[in-house]
Please model this.
Amino acid sequence: MRNSQNSGRAQPSVVALFSGGGGLDLGFAAAGFDICFATDVDPFSCNTLRINQKKRKMYPKHEVLEEDVSGLNAGAILKKSGLARGEVDVLIGGPPCQSFSVFGQRKGLADTRGGMVWEFHRIVDKLRPRAFVFENVYGIQSVHGGRVLRELRNRLSCHGKYDLSVETYEMAEHGIPQWRKRVFIVGVLGGDAPPRLAKKYGDDESCIPFNTAGQALANMPPPGEVLPNHRMRNHSAKIIKRYEKMPFGQRDNRTRINKLYPDKPSFTIVVGSDQGGGKGHVHPHEPREVTPRESARLQTFPDWWEFDGNVRHMIRQVGNAVPPLFAAQIATHIGVHVFGFPKAMTTRALIKRIGINFLH
Model:
C-alpha cells in the first residue's frame, strides 16, 4: 500500500493553505493524514490552530504560520513543513470566498480576495503535490459568467498534469446539520481523480434521515457555562420580544437572520463583512441568537475544538470553515482512491474519531 510519496512517512503529508478555523485540517487529520504545515493571514485563526494541537493524538503539533499566501514561496513552505520537494502528498485550502458568494456583492476578481484563487494554483504548480483539494462557495460557478471557474480549471490542471474532478456538494446530504452548498475541485497528479462522493443523508427511503439543528443543539448547557466559545450576544428587550414571536423559518427583517427549524438542517451559516456582521441564526427554542459554540456544532466542529478571539472572530472562523465531518469524508475517499488506504472510514467512524458527541 502506498501511503506517502515519502517512504519514511507512515501517513500522507498535508500542507494546508487558508486554514481559517481549521475545518479542512481537522477533517484530514481525522481521516489518517499528517498535517505538516498550516497557514492563514488571520492571527485569531492561527491561534485557534495552535490551541488545539495535541488535544487529540490525530491532530499533532505542526508549524502554523501567520502569513499572506501571496508572500509565500514553495521553499519557505517546505522549510517550515520539514518536507522536501516531492514529499507533499496533499495540498488543501479554501481561498477567501466572499467575493464570489451569492450573499455578498460578488465583485469577483475585482475584489483582492478573489485573486487568492490564483495563489492556490501558484503553490500547486510549484509544490506539485500528489493531490490537492480546493474548496469554494457555490457562487464561484457563475461569477463573471462562469469565466473564473473555467480559467481556474484550466490553470489547476497544470497543462494536463492533473486530472480534475469538479463537484458541487450539499453538506446536508453528507450528515452535516446545515444546508450548505459548496464546490470542491480535487486534482490528482498523473492519475485519475476520485469519483463523486455518493450522498448518504436525505428524505429518500434509501438514505439516512437528515441530521437536524435540533439534534446538534440538544442537551447543551446554558450559554456561558462549561463549553468553550459558548457565549451569547446581549439582546435588547425589543429584540428578545421579536424573536419570541417568530415562527420557525422566519427571517428577522432587522438582524436579517432566520429562526431555525428544530426538525430540519440549519440555514447556511454566513460570515458577514470584514467590519463585522457575522452572527448565528435564531435558536429554535430560545429568543436569542445561537452562540459561536452552537454555530460550531452546526458545522460539526467537536466541542473540544476551541476558537480564539471575541464573538465576531469566532463566528467568522466558524462560518468560513469547511465542516470537519465532510472534510473527513473527502479525505478518506481520497485516501482509498489515491493513496491505497484499504477502505474508507464510515461516517459513523469519522464522527467518533473527530469527537462529535451530538450526532448519531
Summary: Residues 270 and 319 are 5 Å apart (CA to CA).
